[in-house]
């Protein structure tokens, strides 16, 4: 075998081995500074959660994508995707800022559950899933039509 | 089958290497998953605790039933900023129940409350079960690797052997093939195009060979026969002429020379005929022949014929050599070898004969140089010192040996020329 071909083979083998080994590195969460979040995420926090203080900002790395967790000092948690769009807002004890909830969902809730507050909203495959202060879980499609109710 | 080994080695070697890569990759992926699952559990637990703390709610019991545990303590700002906010560690934790250190996974978080107080939270869980799991996965993988590799090897061996059967059949048929013998027809049915073609090519080539051979032999046999009759007639006439008293000395001398020439011609012809017959398998009835016995009879004859040469003959026989051979062929074989030993000898020379259970060796003194073993067995090869020989003696010996599947060889062990026939 010529030296060239041998070198090519060795190089290819090494690449494969290194590729394998690098995959062995587990994904761990990393803490980042607020200003390291995507612009859109920073804006959302600044505008919708004005005045709140940040307790912790985490960056999670999955196989191919990144996501961000922001924990506020009042216990609320907001998850953002890699572009900075929110994917999960969990305020637990108070209502999610109204402008973040799509209008059809808001009107549905105010129509059917006037006294309940939306304390959690999550983007899911089918559309949205919300949690009310009375412990009801409601699933909506992307257009905001109610699909399913869970207790 | 070496082809089998070559193919198998290549197939198996490549597969083995690929499997190594796959196994390594698989093991790494699995252990990664196990680790991630563990971490996910801890991360969720930590998040729960942090948010509860931030809301001022009660924290879960320190040992809540799952293996996850936590410690939380307030820290100063400098302390908090000293380390990374989120830290993952594998540590050895002393477990009092077990009385020893066990491995555990720890994640530490540093966070601040609305009041500006910093806390450090450590969540941890023992990893001994995960470590055991990883270890048993590793062993299982190794065992599985060996098993799958062996299975592949065996399947390859079987598959290749099975596929190569037609080739083996063909090779075996070729091994058994004798140019002038009866040959079983090649029966090698196969669906494989290449082997079928090989069968056809080999069969037709052999058939062509056989045809050519047969034609040749027919020709030689016929020619020899045709020569025999006129020769016999001519020799007969000369004998009759020699009985005539009215011939002069000179004329008688000439006739005798003529007789000798024609006799020699006749001998050559007869030897040729014999060669043809041997090759055609016309001496086919073998019998159990004690070569030593036969030889001693011939020795007596030759000793008296060549007495004037004063040759010493020694026979040493450990065990009798008994061959399955046609009697006439045995006689011709021994006679030719013995005759050579007498004729190509020197005055006062010696002949040594050695007989064992599997071989017969005739050694005689003669010319001081070794003979050319490539040439001496070819028909009509003459040594310069005996112009009267037919040159077919050794060719006949060789033909007989071939026919009877005996091994014939020549070597020169000074000062003896040794001819050996063996099984």
Task: Characterize this entry briefly.
Chain A is an alpha+beta fold. Helix content of chain A is 27%, strand content 32%. The longest helix of chain A is centred in the first third of the chain and has 21 residues, at 3-23.
Strand content bin of chain A = 25-35%
What assembly state would you assign to the polypeptide chains in this entry?
A: heterodimer
Terminal CA distance of chain A reads: 70 Å
> From the alpha-carbon coordinates, what is the Rg of chain A to the nearest angstrom?
22 Å
* Structural class determined from secondary elements of chain A: alpha+beta
> Largest inter-chain interface?
A-B, 26 and 27 residues
Helix/strand order of chain A, N-terminal first: HEHEEEEHEEEE
**The CATH top-level class label of the largest domain in chain B:** Alpha Beta
Total number of strands of chain B: 11
- Described by the principal axes of the CA atoms, the overall outline of chain B is rod-shaped
Strand % of chain B is: 15-25%
Q: In which range does the helix fraction of chain B lie?
A: 40-55%
Estimate nothing, just give the exact number of structural domains of chain B: 3
Largest sheet of chain A: 9 strands, antiparallel
What does the largest sheet of chain B look like? 5 strands, mixed
Spatially, the strands of the biggest sheet of chain B line up as 6-8-9-11-10
Average pLDDT of chain A, rounded to a whole number, is: 86
Q: How are the strands of the largest sheet of chain A arranged?
A: 1-2-3-4-5-6-7-8-9
Could you characterize what this model shows?
The complex is a heterodimer of chains A (151) and B (423). Chain A has 151 residues and is α+β, with helices and mostly antiparallel strands. Chain A has one domain: 3-Layer(aba) Sandwich (Inhibitor of vertebrate lysozyme, Ivy). Chain A has 3 helices and 9 strands. Chain A has a 9-stranded antiparallel sheet with strand order 1-2-3-4-5-6-7-8-9, with helices on one face. In chain A, strand 7 (127-132) and strand 8 (137-141) form a beta hairpin. Chain A is elongated, with a radius of gyration of 22 Å. The model of chain A has no long low-confidence stretch (mean pLDDT 86). The mean pLDDT of chain B is 86. Chain B has 3 domains: 2-160, Beta-Lactamase (2-Layer Sandwich); 193-279; 287-422, Heat Shock Protein 90. Chain B has helices spanning 2-55, 77-82, 128-163, 165-176, 193-242, 249-279, 291-305, 327-343, 393-403; strands at 69-75, 86-95, 100-112, 118-126, 287-290, 312-317, 322-325, 350-355, 359-365, 407-413, 416-422. Chain B is 55% helix and 19% strand. In chain B, helix 5 packs antiparallel against helix 6, helix 7 (291-305) crosses helix 8 and helix 8 (327-343) packs antiparallel against helix 9 (393-403). With 423 residues, chain B is of the alpha+beta class. Chain B contains 9 helices and 11 strands. Chain B has a 5-stranded mixed sheet. Chain B has a 4-stranded antiparallel sheet with strand order 1-4-3-2. A two-stranded antiparallel ribbon of chain B has the order 5-7. Chain A binds chain B through residues 16, 20-21, 23-31, 53, 55-56, 58, 69, 71-77, 92-93, and chain B through 21, 24-25, 28-29, 31-32, 35-36, 39, 43, 47, 50-52, 54-55, 57, 84-86, 88, 109, 111-114.
